[in-house]
Amino acid sequence: MEMMPENEPSKAPTAGIVKRTTVFWFLILLLLPVPFAILNAWLNPNRPAWTKPVGEFPFITVAGLDVLRANGTSMIIDARTPAEFNHSHIPGALNLYPGAFDSGLEAVIDNWMPEQTIAIYCGDAGCASSEIIARRLRAEVGFENIYLLEGGWERWLQVSAPLPYRDETQAIQ
Amino acid sequence: MNGNHIKWLWLPRLLIAGIFIFAGVIKVIQPDTFFEDVLNYQLLPRSAAWLIAFYLPMLEMVVGIALLFRPTCRASAWILLLCMILFTTALAFAWVRGLNIECGCFGGLIPASHYGWLLTRNLLLISLLGWIILVYPKHDT
User: Fold this and answer.
1) A→B interface, C-beta within 8 Å
2) What is the rounded (10 degree) CA torsion for A162, A81, A121, A41?
3) How much is the pTM?
4) Hey, which end of chain A has fewer CB within 10 Å, N or C?
5) Pairing relation of β-strands A146-149 and A117-121?
6) Angle at B44 between CA B43 and CA B47, to 5 degrees
7) H or E stretch including A75?
8) ipTM for this model
9) Interatomic CA distance for residues A3 and A41, integer angstroms
């Protein structure tokens, strides 16, 4: 215990310098990737779009989806997580989530019929997974006639879900 | 005891540097895949995910390399530790919410494993980084 006061004066200045240099390198290392990241964002051919591509996939309203469902000319794909799908979904929808694309694709292909309209939805208006699924279905399977449900599951629940079903779902949530 | 610890520090430094440089390079090449992985966590808006898709892989590469050099070792270990805490929190949050997503750790090259394994791996890396920060001599910086 008595050694402590003797050691302290010699340690204190070193500790100060160490703190400054570590912080210095910390900041340099945080800033150094920035120019390289900008260069990569500029030149990389695999650059994702900054904004959602406008008009890449047309939207379908909940009312439009109801008409298609009544006519039986549509395939509805739920792009939310399997847990969310299992909890509740639009009747007749198939689950195809980006994280489980390969395992869910078989059921989609089995149920697909030519001339069918494909409507894809995810959680709400801001979600991205319906767009991701739409792009993969078009690129990897060659599906056309793909629509995204405007407002997603949230909108369908507000507008079109049968009242007891809506109450039950919202109560659980 | 402490001297022995320091002698063996090159091992976790090399291991962690290799992991992060590898992870960074894959994601630098395929930013679109990593961008979708980040979006799937449903934690960030599209614009923030886009910025992260370009910045984070470069940071991983730079800091991974810096971990191998004496003056930058401690600072890079601190950055990696903070990154790992953030990644682990995001992963745990996704697990709690029942999301079945790719972890995005190595872009699209290594598919997602079980959450339990991913979290264990992250905690192991956090421990190694903590060890480096505690044991690495401060006067080397």
Assistant:
1) 14-15, 18, 21-26, 28-30, 32-34, 36-38, 40-41, 44, 46-48, 50-52, 81-84, 97-100, 123, 126-129, 132
2) 160
3) 0.62
4) N
5) parallel
6) 165
7) strand A74-78
8) 0.87
9) 57
